[in-house]
Write a structure and sequence with these properties.
77% of the residues lie in helices and 0% in strands. It has 117 residues and is an all-alpha fold. Helix 1 (2-24) packs antiparallel against helix 2 and helix 2 runs antiparallel to helix 3. The model has no long low-confidence stretch (mean pLDDT 92). This is Lipoprotein.
Length: 117
């Protein structure tokens, strides 16, 4: 389950990097691209939630971070929809937390008995 979530989030990360490069360069992002990015993120999040509900309490860290990451993503989407420029600080916070969440998920997926503490 976790390896599947990690595979989905790998695709999400690649989509995110493509969007960041466009935004950073001042190019517009296609309207469907953030929707596909968000939908894939929700699929990966659902896989993580199912694993957590099955008893893997280590994943609560990922779920908590995902709530913040999703909130920042929605904020960016609403800001862009209004025709305003997304503040780079929000973009960096979203991406930075996503990287930390991805690394933690990878650690948990490939170290089934390991904990962070």
């Amino acid at each position: 389950m976790l390896v599947g979530a990690l595979a989905v989030f790998t695709l999400v990360a690649l989509m995110g990097l493509a969007m960041i490069s466009d935004v950073w360069a001042g190019r517009p992002v296609g309207p469907a691209y953030p929707i596909v990015h968000g939908a894939a993120s929700l699929v990966g999040s659902a896989l993580v939630i199912v694993a957590a509900l099955a008893g893997d309490t280590r994943l609560y860290l990922n779920i908590g971070m995902a709530v913040v990451i999703i909130g920042l993503g929605l904020l960016m989407g609403l800001t862009a929809k209004k025709g305003k420029r997304v503040p780079r600080a929000i973009l960096v916070a979203h991406a930075g937390l996503a990287v930390i969440c991805y690394l933690a998920l990878g650690f948990f997926a490939f170290n089934p008995s390991a904990t962070l503490i």
